[in-house]
Design brief:
The protein is mainly beta. It has one helix at residues 53-67, and strands at residues 4-10, 14-21, 24-33, 39-46, 78-85. The chain has one domain (4-85): GMP Synthetase, Chain A, domain 3 (2-Layer Sandwich).
Length: 102
């Protein structure tokens, strides 16, 4: 599949990655590391990226192999929710703006 992974966010219990091919975003992945040793992931396949259902297992395996050596689907300690979506934009809070206003 020839993917490049880019970590865009990391906290003590979660990470976000972008999957890229030829410089083009294919998917966004959020991983949440739970206290019981399992990992729950949300994978958003981006519309128009050239991926379809036949590529999902390969994408998940590539992510698992690269970043998740201690968990896997077969052992039952890794789960994914897969969504097809499109990026509409980024909304960010601005400085000096009241909380809840965007």
């Amino acid at each position: 599949m020839n993917l490049t992974w880019k970590r865009t966010l990391r906290t003590a219990s979660s990470e976000r990655f972008l999957a890229l091919r030829d410089g083009k975003d294919l998917a966004a992945v959020d991983l949440h590391y739970l206290a019981n040793g399992t990992v729950a992931g949300t994978v958003i396949i981006l519309k128009g990226a050239g991926l379809d259902e036949s590529n999902i297992e390969q994408l998940l395996s590539a992510l698992d192999d690269e970043f998740l050596p201690d968990v896997d689907l077969e052992r039952g300690n890794l789960t994914y929710t897969v969504v097809l979506g499109e990026v509409l934009g980024n909304w960010e809070a601005e400085k000096n703006q009241p909380a809840g206003s965007y």
